[in-house]
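TASK: fixed-backbone design
INPUT:
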């Protein structure tokens, strides 16, 4: 992992994301000119014009442990022949820029059709088969993710914040009472980003890794 570039962290907006993109690309020798901002949400995502690469900028240094795991998991899947979103192989990442972890991914080119249920099921079965890789030190999947952090940082009245925290506690207690019968497998761990982005399937077939 590369050391921090660009000093202390800042809030993630479209303007700061553009600045962070430039610093991150300079650090790894990529050209950020003409890059297109895809969105700013949980991460800022850019598509480079100079190469088929997507740059993902996390919101803060608090995301670093998860980002490190995402990179390690992607590299492991490549070695196992699992079709999934792929990090750039020749880049030391994540790069930390201004307190923001940054990763670089091969652009996923999708076919003009939706994945079938059979194709999705096959991909999930492939992930469920292997023994969870202990060397990655992956925690069990957290259903609630960063809900507490989002509630804390939300620009909302204190009354609404208290209500949301109460609801979150209730949901955590209810989920803790559920008992699952199947054995622990890789798919039960944090191998995927929210929405299946790391699996690289989404709503369309993924060509990455083929």
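OUTPUT:
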């Amino acid at each position: 992992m590369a050391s921090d570039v660009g000093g202390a962290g800042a809030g993630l907006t479209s303007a700061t994301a553009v600045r962070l993109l430039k610093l991150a690309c300079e650090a790894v020798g990529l050209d950020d000119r003409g890059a297109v901002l895809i969105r700013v949400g949980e991460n800022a995502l850019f598509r480079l014009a100079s190469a088929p690469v997507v740059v993902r900028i996390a919101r803060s240094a608090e995301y670093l442990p998860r980002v490190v795991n995402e990179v390690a998991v992607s590299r492991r899947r490549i070695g196992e022949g699992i079709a999934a979103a792929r990090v750039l192989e020749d880049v030391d990442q994540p790069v930390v820029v201004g307190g923001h972890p940054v990763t670089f991914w091969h652009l996923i080119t999708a076919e003009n059709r939706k994945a079938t249920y059979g194709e999705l099921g096959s991909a999930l079965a492939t992930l469920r088969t292997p023994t969870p890789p202990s060397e990655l030190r992956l925690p069990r999947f957290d259903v609630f993710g960063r809900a507490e952090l989002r509630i804390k940082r939300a620009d909302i009245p204190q009354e609404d914040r208290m209500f949301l925290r109460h609801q979150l506690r209730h949901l955590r207690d209810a989920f803790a009472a559920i008992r699952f019968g199947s054995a622990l497998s890789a798919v039960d761990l944090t191998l995927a980003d929210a929405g299946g982005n790391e699996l690289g399937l989404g709503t369309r077939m993924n060509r990455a890794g083929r």
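COMMENT: The domain at 2-133+185-206 is CATH 3.30.200.20 (Phosphorylase Kinase; domain 1).
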